[in-house]
């Protein structure tokens, strides 16, 4: 086993190494003219300043939790939390550092050819992707190796389990702050900048006279890049950890328990290799089909992963395994479960492209509705956003059923792990979006020829879809993984309850009925169900307030400095960044703490009203409730937002409606489409994506609550 | 017992009688001048034509189901279905007939004074309210009396239970068609008319030159009145029936089982009396506070109901009762449960007023966001709509916990029944809204002085809130009642499974695990959860298409008949009504059948993949899933829509923003607010309210599926 574990760690290191090597090569690319460099430097400075301040704030929350984890659970949990938090933060920071360097280089490359622009942008995305996947694998496998191999702790013991879960919690906590803070920043800048610039002052998007433009570009990097990277890091780490925990529970006492715990790590490790290989296949063909080029890389990764996962599973699992529940699982069934995970990924990619791509019914219907006005654009966009949830949900349902039939709950866990295995490639597709968005902004501000902007716009439109894909993928894996986390919760609970001598809190509490006929289960479902809605409402209001602060500042600059409008003086970009930084950090705190505190509040409330068994039942049901509504809220927001954004792009390229009339930039239809795009902004880049870490946090807090109660430090 | 049952029927008859007497008095009111009468006649004609065509279409679906019910379950189920369907249809038709007569009389009364306008509008609402409550009670209690007293069937036997459940299904089926068809009609007219009139032609709302105006007014009557009446009829009937079924299951074999089955009917009966009394207390005080006047009536009804429910419960239930599960319930605990129902009603009224009333933070925040543009208006409105779900959900959670602690599942059932008991009064508050909306339209079209319009607008603004209240109330009762329906499902299932000799389909199927650890339960939750989203998306797109057909028609009329714009020729109002009628009826079919067919599809699919036990588990979980997401989707849509509508009204009255600038009709802020209002229209009047009957249908179809399988005609 030991050798394989070190191989996994090597695979994680390979991912990071790939990132470092590619970064070195990326840095050599041409950064264009002085004006471009100047703009890029301003974006870099703003992004670094924001992230530093954001992480300082999160750090304060983190230290409190670190101490609490140490006191309430133990040193290994505290250290695990620290590792997860620091690495998740680093993944975000690295994503930002890469993208603020890639943006200007992409603008320059795009001024040469679309193909070169795509190459550079995708390469920067791949760097972030490999940092995320490699870093997460290094963190989880590395800490596991230290605990079991170096310190010699029992792999299925509480110290190791609690340490790994705490690592997941650290990653989740950072990621919700990063997603939300970054999301509020980027959309506050975007919405506020558009309102005061495009609507009030009548100047184009990304016009250098708008003091919010730099902030808008900073936002792409701290939100869509850093926030996304931290989010995917979290998804990757939590899923791997949850599968390991489930393996420890299901195969406790069996000779192959260590193999089964290693299995998710090994699958992830080999998929890093296939992702790296796939990344070399992203090349623009003669047809200039950007999405096709990206798909090429993704398909290569997928196909190679099928073989690789088969190899890993059949090598490690040499014969049938039996769970503590008595279910016998054949190795091939585990492989088929892994395939289910890859199939779910593929299906979600295709469905998301259908709902957010420029060439399909949904986006075109939104474009068409824009012709009759703002209201109908929004109605159609909302309708699309609601409808877009159905197919992904059915895919997830089918994924659950098939993998469960194959290999029980562990089959679902393996499907989820394999799905996340290719995260490096998926992140690569996503991170390329904000880079091209930024490149477009730089091209505009630096006054590059309009063909450059045309190239970056083409890349950006595809970026809108790939961004939606990643979000659908992350939330889809959460839907599939919900059962895994829930199973970890119930199994932990059962274990504690059956060993009351060691865990006195769980003594004599009777049977915990997770049955739907238990009203406390319904209470938990409803309470969990309300969280994504309340969270969505709070985060959208936060964006509104952040945008207002930007509007006020830009208005002030226009008013106090009339030279800005006539290009005689430059606006104070830094001031807008600074104001937004403070607004975003202030606004991210309360919604981020909602999922951290809610499980504890519900547990204590039901404990007070009823008894321990019902409190645990309500808490468990809450985990399921938050996923049931969260899945739909998140998918509807991210797909709807993507559809609105691309409907606007479709019109900007000249949209011919049913009556043969062509609508372009500046038309009434375009104005309506801009409204939809504005509405979609916080939907798809703030509230929607933050639901994924929110779901995870709720689940992990519940697991940690069990750990705290089991430790005997409370109760 | 018998005497009390006839008393209940008498109370139902009293409600209907009140309606008839008040109608006679209403008809005597002044109908204004010839022009007003002419307009009103056109509205009447359009509304009748639409409803006739709608009910003919529904009738065809109904006949198929009637025959199926007869063949698959039996004659009593078929007759019950027929009664429920016919009465629900009649309730809708009556609501429409009243409101198309009250609208012109209210316009005339409002031209004399606000107080007279309120009096007339509310009186017409109260007529509809009493028809709905009285009719539903007559239907349920009457059919129950015929089955048990006249035909002498056993009250807890399958014939009676299936007959009552089928009655509920008949009511639900009609109501979803009526809600959806009416909702698509009314919002198609509203959205389409506004788009082509206000936006394109630049003429005001309700301008007689717009061919869609009559259709818009027709829509208020067939959607907000007829649809709402059918919906509330359904809610009332289904809740009463579900409580009776639960009583039959819980107290089977006890001497007081008939008393317990009578209890929900008796509570509803006495509450009809208190609602009638309360309706006389709606009088406008010197302060001209319309909401205050309505509250006065509601509070009187509420306070009287407390005493009345106490009297009924303590008279009928003379000592502790014991369920088959062994739970002993004191009569006073049943009374306290009833009080919980009234408290939930009061809380939902207050919360809904907060979120949709013109004087509170949410509506004012939407008005304020309108100042910065269309996009921010919509963002803030969506944020409010999401946030607005949290408090009602918590109220429902607390209601479930408290009534369950008091008297177990039967306590929840009594709470829900009592909540629905005062439906007559709640419907009165609601039905008054569309009447005043119509009155405003007639005033505008007939060229009455602007003060009249001012009065009707003031009434209409309150109507927006009361309409949102009714919807929150209906969906809230569904949330509370979900457990009752689910309990009926599980108890029925348990009963069949424990008597395999009589019900061979249920033999040897093993334990049905409704446990959240069963993946098929999660599958059911997710599948149920997707229905409200998909349904919402489909119905909003339907409104979009219906609106487009209106736009095309009005454009054609303007183009082909230039005299319309110069007031020389009248537009062809009937043509627009006709086109919309066809569109609405075409569009209502598929979404309405979604909840009818989904339970069957899921059951068969899981049966095919797994086994009977898991198929029943998935189906049960689906019922819970549809309520968990449906509750939030419905509340967010209805509250958000109300907030948008009133934000527009606030601006029309002159809104002073944070910087002291006043925005009024025609301002940029007003245009943005109109966009929000347009978006809110299908949200609050089509998709949102139709979720309530959708949830019920899913539940009842599941119950009927059990009945079919038990009958042995299939399987």
From TrEMBL, chains A, B:
Coiled coil: none annotated. It is a multi-pass membrane protein. Its EC number is 7.1.3.1. It catalyses: diphosphate + H2O + H(+)(in) = 2 phosphate + 2 H(+)(out). The chain crosses the membrane at residues 6-27, 55-73, 79-100, 120-144, 164-185, 236-253, 259-282, 294-313, 333-356, 377-402, 408-429, 473-497, 517-535, 589-609, 615-635. The record marks 467 as: Determinant of potassium independence. The keyword tRNA-binding does not apply. Keywords: Cell membrane, Hydrogen ion transport, Hydrolase, Ion transport, Magnesium, Membrane, Translocase, Transmembrane, Transmembrane helix, Transport. It is found in: Cell membrane; Endomembrane system. Its cofactor is Mg(2+). InterPro entries: PPase-energised_H-pump (IPR004131). GO terms for molecular function: inorganic diphosphate phosphatase activity. Homodimer. Proton pump that utilizes the energy of pyrophosphate hydrolysis as the driving force for proton movement across the membrane. Generates a proton motive force. Belongs to the H(+)-translocating pyrophosphatase (TC 3.A.10) family. K(+)-insensitive subfamily. This is K(+)-insensitive pyrophosphate-energized proton pump. The gene is hppA.
